[in-house]
Structures are given as structure tokens and as C-alpha cells.
Amino acid sequence: MSLWYEIEISSKFDIIEEATAAFYDLEIFELTIEDPLILKELSKDKKSWDYVDENMLNCENEKFIIKACVSNILIDKIIDDLENLLKIYLADRFKESFINIRYYEIDPDEYKDEWKKFFKPFYICENVMVCPSWEECTLKPNDKLIDIDPSGAFGTGNHETTSMCARFIKKYINPNDDVLDIGTGSGILSIVAKNLGANRVLAFDTDTNACEIARENISKNGFSNSISVINSTLKTNEKFDLVVANIIADVIMLIADDVKSNLKNNAIFITSGIITERREEVINKLMSFGYKVIDELSENGWTCICFRL
Fold it and tell me: How far apart are CA 290 and CA 278, in angstroms?
């Protein structure tokens, strides 16, 4: 039986933005946020809300709390990664924020079906629909279907960082292109690339569990013979027509110089997972390596940038 955990990050200071970004960097997108400032405002004007839980209003909690439920993961590694990301995002504020990160096992029978009502079929890009196994999907002519179920730790494609990548893959891929997917997570972008005509895809991820999940999703969609998943940092001498890295700004800037050796002539390098505040920093760093910006999208505080040498 799968183990389910609830992870909770709390602080007496407002760290909601930083904690949310840390969860998102680990492709954990379904969050519960408790903001005491909002509750205080709510208590002053309950008429403006459709429903008010009086127990919440009577709660004397003064902490900012961000929670997520996850399954099938190396929980200790996730906790370590969250702490390290918070140290990056909060910098000098980390120690003085008195952050508490904890987790505990929860009853999977209470949770396992509850989240399903929030995951419905959707188009990750034009003509490519993502559909969970328990839903009936009606496709339009020329639509492609991706069969994928959420794993608590890795994304299904409905987050902006992933959907923007998918749209750029759709825009720039050519039939029989070779594709490199750095930080594949659930494997969703590798599967998108194959559905849009890629010849073969090489996918890397340093997380062992992510690679297992990616291989399951790839097999479920019938691409085991044309998508290879490697549990490692980026190590290949091969060249590709399109490279996609949906990770975080720091890692993109760290690997960008090495990625140049993996680009064919006129290849596209799609980068995402970049908070918009760091857009210029990423662009300046990659331009120093000889890249040029050819396209970009921004949505809800996230930016996806396409580069070419």
C-alpha cells in the first residue's frame, strides 16, 4: 500500500511566497495555505464570504502555514530539498524566520480519492490533451491524448511552468527532431514531444523516484522504445534539435554553458521554472554564454524563455 504524507511548513512570519516557490520547484503544486492575516480580515467582514467556518475564525493560530500531501516519495529527501530551497529564497531571512518543517503519515483511504475531483482533463497545449485514467475524455479531430495520473511529488502538466514549455515545444518542434529533456519529473514534456512528432527523446533526472514515475508514464503512453530515462545529472555527448529544461533558475544558469555542446545548429533551448523576478538575471547569464533570446512567455509570476546560439 502506498504511503501518504502531509508536509507542513510554518513560520510566525509571512513566508508564503517563498514556501510556495520551494514546493513548486519540486513540482508539488497542490497546496493548502493558512494565512492568519486573511483570517483576521475575514473575521471583520464575514458577509463578504459565501461560507465561513467558525472554527477557523475562533482559532488563535498566528502562524503562516503551507501544507501539501504527497505519496510514493523519499520523504526525507523532499524535506531536505525544501529546507535548502527555503535557504536560497529567504537568504539572510532564513534563520530569523523560525521556520518549522514537519511531516506525518496520513490515512490514504481518506485522501487518495479526494484530490481526484480537482484533476480534470485539460489541454497542455493546442491539440494535446492530458487525461487521468478515471475520466472520460472527448477528443477533437487531430487531438493527441496523454494518459497520466498525478503522483503527489511530480507534476501532471497543469502548472504554468510546464504548460508554457509544452506550448513552445508545439511551436518549435519539427517532425523527427531529437529532443533532450533535462529534469523530466513525471516525464510529461518528453511524452508531449513524442506526441508532437519527435524522433527520440533522452530524459534526465537526478531523482530516482522521478525516473521511476516517468518510466511508468512513458510506458503507459506507449513510448518506452523511443524515450530513454536516465537517473543522473546531464551526461551525454549527443546533439539535439530541441532541449527543454523545466527546473529552476539557478540550475539553468549552472548548466547552460555545458548544454551548448548538446545543441545542433539552430537548435532551440527552452528554459522554464524561472520566477519572473529573476528573468533578467537568467537572460544576462545565458547571453554571456553566447545565447540569444528568441521567444518568451510569462504567466502568474513565472517565465519561460527560448534561447538559440
Answer: 19
